[in-house]
Amino acid sequence: MLEPSSAAEPTTWAALLEKKWALLLLFRLLPGPQRFGELRRAMPEVSAKQLCQRLRDLAEAELLTRQVVTTPPHVVYALTPRGEALRAALGALRQWSMDYLDSGTHSAACRTCPLWQGAARS
User: Fold this and answer.
1) Secondary structure (DSSP) of 66-109
2) Rounded to two decimals, what is the model's pTM?
3) In degrees, to the nearest 5, what angle opens at C-alpha 118 toward C-alphas 34 and 47?
4) Which domain holds residue 20?
5) Residue 58 CB: number of other CB atoms within 10 A?
6) CATH number at residue 46
7) Hey, how many other C-beta atoms are within 10 angstroms of the C-beta on 6?
């Protein structure tokens, strides 16, 4: 049984993952490490300030790493083993959303979701 102070308590991890853009950022890093600029271009609807803050939050939670490269100067973000452990859950969430969209019971606005737009349809 989980203790109320346990890090595995749903309110603990949900508080992090419910923050705007957190899940989408993790999804964007699944293929591999990316520079800040790559993430910025892939998510133009997110302000630079908000992107920086969310990347910082995810790094503090040890879901991703932030590596500063000096030549040429840039920052690379990558999932940690803890972040990689979310791969199956993120894949299942993506599949669920694609099934939902294919069902025709959603609003037209759902198709504007960046997660759906970036999904490779099989």
Assistant:
1) EEEETTTTEEEEEE-HHHHTTHHHHHHHHHHHHHHHHHT-S-GG
2) 0.72
3) 60
4) 14-117
5) 25
6) 1.10.10.10
7) 10
